[in-house]
Amino acid sequence: MNLIIQGLDIQNHDLRHIAKLAQASHIERITGEAFRLVNATEHSEIPNYCADAQLDFAYVTPNKKLSEFGLVVMDMDSTLIAIESIDEIAALCNVKQQVAEITTSTMRGEIDFSESLIRRTALLKGLPEDLLQQVYDQKVKLSLGADKMLHKMKLAGLRTMVISGGFTFFTDRIKAKLGLDFSFANQLEITDGKLTGSVAGEIIGAKGKADILKNIRDQLHLNKEQVIAIGDGANDLPMLTEAGTSIAFHGKPILQGKTTFSINYVGLDAVINFFEQASPY
Q1: Model confidence over 99-120: pLDDT tens digits?
Q2: 9 part of the active site
Q3: Is 75 known to be catalytic?
């Protein structure tokens, strides 16, 4: 196996020490924030050492090409974008703390997602619809490295999809902005220009995310091993299990150890460094 080490500030002595522990034959530079330790073996000290040094590590199969995949599926909030959109909407209703507490508990897997969304959406009742645009314009920003990751994946021929437990108001705009192939999310119910506090239609929760992935995967005639899925919370876990390569991006504790790879310290462009021919540009 090869061992990929990534970090915002990789020190040479850390890299050399990890290479020694892994008995790697040599070190290859991928980018200034990513290195490949070739012919590495697993060592019990490496996880703790990397955690102390704030470095991400991943054992990868050599010569795995990004072009072998056909689809990348991403969660939206705290994954593709760097905020929880419903929390920012709640700030305009002066209920951000209440909503954020429910969001955090949900992502840890303590509250069923559907119940959580119903409770949080109810707190938004009466908000003027036009203020959603204010949240999008002023608060929504891509996660670090998202644009580089998507650029490389599109060049490799992957289709791109966002599936969110959030709202179509945001996913529709992000799909258009980034040129994504598919987007799915929940629909806010709006009457007379104001949020009613309800979700229109069936709620897309944890199972819904997995079902959508499977449906699109079948439509594209792809098998599970041709899919990459990226998420951060408990409600992403069923979706992640439907992908051959699953990635926890700054994931909650419930995801740790349950995905193919974990990225805790660097940006989404780290994903492309798991594949030998990939570069961030």
Answers
A1: 889 988 888 889 888 899 999 9
A2: no
A3: yes
